[in-house]
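We examine the record.

___
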Amino acid sequence: MKTGFGGGAWLNEPSRWSIDGDQLTVTTENETDFWRETYYGFVHDNGHAYLLPADDGFTAMLRVRANYTANFDQAGMMLHLDDRHWLKCGVELTDGDRFLSVVVTNGRSDWSVCQPFRELGDYRLRMTVKDGSVLIHASRDGANWSMLRVAAFAAAPSYRVGPMTCSPSRAGLEVVFSDFSIGPASTEPLHAEV
């Protein structure tokens, strides 16, 4: 099990960021985002992601704290293979409300949103990657988890994973990431027995 942010590298390093113990604080640059083509027609690849290496067959966990105030403010976790194969998940402010959001990009991006709980200023993400699939959960407390997405993703022997944040309509979203870990893929069943 790897914990903390040691050994990471930036994809689009912001001018303001710091690591203090197990806490990474990031302030976004102006008009940053990750998106590829679908519906909107544009390609944006200038969001901020602090990524660490991980071999296939892992579960990554992360705590995220932010105050989302501008449309499309977002923060969470990214899985990255290359500029055409990546996934971002977390909270995004859209149309005046906060949603848990997942964007899967396999050549082109898609976008799904849900609200299994409403208190989204401080939450946790869990991402399990193995054999060309990604399973994403979110939690308010780190004990009770809601499934956000099961997605197909490009199979590879290794990936990069870590915190991600963007602010497409402004600069200055401050995000505090903590409790980051990468360990063996979770063996918990996808569905609880009834």
Observations:
- The chain has one domain: 2-184.
